[in-house]
Amino acid sequence: MQVHELPTPSLLVDLPAFDRNVATMAEAWPGDRLRPHVKAFKSTSVAKRLAAHGHHGFCCATVREVIGMAAAGLGADLLLANESLDLARLTPMVEEGRARITVAVDSEETIDAAVRAGIPEVLIDVDVGLPRCGCDPADAGRLADLARGQGLGVRGVMGYEGHLMREPGDTKADLVERSMALLNEAHAAVGGDIVSGGGTGTWDVNSWITELQAGSYCLMDTEYTPHAKAFENALAVWTTVISTSAKGWGVLDAGLKAFGMDHGDPTVIEVGDCWFVSDEHITFGIAEGASVAVGDRVRVLPAHVDPTVSQHERMYVVDGDEVVDVWNVDLRGW
Amino acid sequence: MQVHELPTPSLLVDLPAFDRNVATMAEAWPGDRLRPHVKAFKSTSVAKRLAAHGHHGFCCATVREVIGMAAAGLGADLLLANESLDLARLTPMVEEGRARITVAVDSEETIDAAVRAGIPEVLIDVDVGLPRCGCDPADAGRLADLARGQGLGVRGVMGYEGHLMREPGDTKADLVERSMALLNEAHAAVGGDIVSGGGTGTWDVNSWITELQAGSYCLMDTEYTPHAKAFENALAVWTTVISTSAKGWGVLDAGLKAFGMDHGDPTVIEVGDCWFVSDEHITFGIAEGASVAVGDRVRVLPAHVDPTVSQHERMYVVDGDEVVDVWNVDLRGW
Question: CA A36 → CA A25, A79, A260, distances in Å?
Answer without folding.
Answer: 10, 10, 21
